[in-house]
């Protein structure tokens, strides 16, 4: 499971010219799922994201977590995070999980993150043509892969 996390002051996702979810002050999380991912990956990644200290404290030092600042989260499925660019000019997405596997894992991740944060988490629509708008704060962008836990 791979996540690209951006600290944002605002973010929204639009499908068919309708905003389906939006947040302010929080994290925009692009989530890529592969076939080998499981519940252990979900719990580890959700906990890591909820407690990642990338928000500024009173001294303007990145020392506070999403939990501590009571920020919001928006999770967008993004199979392209598993793109392989080793051969040719067209990326391969062979490692990305097919929808039958990815959708339940995506939904489970959202549920786990809601549990860890104690609040509702915004989402896009899995498989839809989504337009994501954001104002990156910092900019702060972090990548986490559950295959690199150590």
From TrEMBL:
Claim: RNA-binding is one of the keywords in the record: yes
Alphabetically ordered keywords of this record: Cytoplasm, Hydrolase, RNA-binding, tRNA-binding
Localization terms from the record: Cytoplasm
Origin superkingdom: Bacteria
Protein EC: 3.1.1.96, 3.1.1.-
Catalytic activity annotation: a D-aminoacyl-tRNA + H2O = a tRNA + a D-alpha-amino acid + H(+); glycyl-tRNA(Ala) + H2O = tRNA(Ala) + glycine + H(+)
Motif Gly-cisPro motif, important for rejection of L-amino acids per UniProt: ranges: 138-139
Molecular functions per Gene Ontology: D-aminoacyl-tRNA deacylase activity
InterPro entries per UniProt: Daa-tRNA_deacyls_DTD, DTD-like_sf
Pfam assignment, any one: Tyr_Deacylase
Subunit-level organization: Homodimer.
Function: An aminoacyl-tRNA editing enzyme that deacylates mischarged D-aminoacyl-tRNAs. Also deacylates mischarged glycyl-tRNA(Ala), protecting cells against glycine mischarging by AlaRS. Acts via tRNA-based rather than protein-based catalysis; rejects L-amino acids rather than detecting D-amino acids in the active site. By recycling D-aminoacyl-tRNA to D-amino acids and free tRNA molecules, this enzyme counteracts the toxicity associated with the formation of D-aminoacyl-tRNA entities in vivo and helps enforce protein L-homochirality.
Domain notes: A Gly-cisPro motif from one monomer fits into the active site of the other monomer to allow specific chiral rejection of L-amino acids.
Record family assignment: Belongs to the DTD family.
Protein name: D-aminoacyl-tRNA deacylase
Lineage: Bacteria, Pseudomonadati, Bacteroidota, Flavobacteriia, Flavobacteriales
Gene: dtd
